[in-house]
Amino acid sequence: MRLVIVYNANAGLVAAMLDSVHKIALPSTYPCSLCAVTYGPLAMKRRWRAWLQEQPLPVEFYHRPDFRAAFPADADLQLPLIALADGARVLPLLDAATLDAIGSIDDLIAKIDDRLRSQQVE
What angle do CA 30, 94, 22 make, to 5 degrees? Predict the structure, then answer.
């Protein structure tokens, strides 16, 4: 079992730079609520990084195209997404609508921890 974190963004340096500008200039139109909560303008937020490092499950990160290639059976899921994966399928923990409603790192972490407990995953 692994924790899968999927950003609704493209990978790469150019995409990251464009995303940073978009988050600053037009935050209300930025398409990745998970990125907006977990990243500052230039880097991953410390609180999020620390929580990730404490996880007993392996954590895998994907950007939109990489996720669709790695999990073709789940390619139609709306992104961003936090899920559990066991093999080639994912079990969503927090879907796009839930992530869109989260406004802080602490709220995000509390929601993930709650869902992991309800799935009895530690």
Answer: 10
Distance (Å, whole) CA 16 – CA 50: 21
Q: Please tell me the distance from the alpha carbon of residue 35 to that of residue 41, in angstroms, as a whole number.
A: 10
59 Cβ neighbours under 8 A, 6+ residues apart:
2, 3, 4, 5, 52
Q: Please list the residues that pair with 91 across neighbouring strands.
A: 84
State whether the Cα torsion 55-60-64-69 is positive or negative: negative
| pTM, entire model | 0.81
Indicate the domain borders of the chain. 2-118
- The alpha helices in 1-122, defined as continuous H runs, are 13-25, 33-38, 46-54, 64-70, 96-100, 105-118
Contacts of 114 (CB under 8 A, 6+ apart): none
Please give the chain's pLDDT, 122 residues, in tens: 999 999 987 665 555 555 555 455 555 555 567 878 898 777 889 999 999 999 999 999 998 899 999 999 999 999 999 999 988 899 999 999 999 999 899 999 999 999 999 987 65
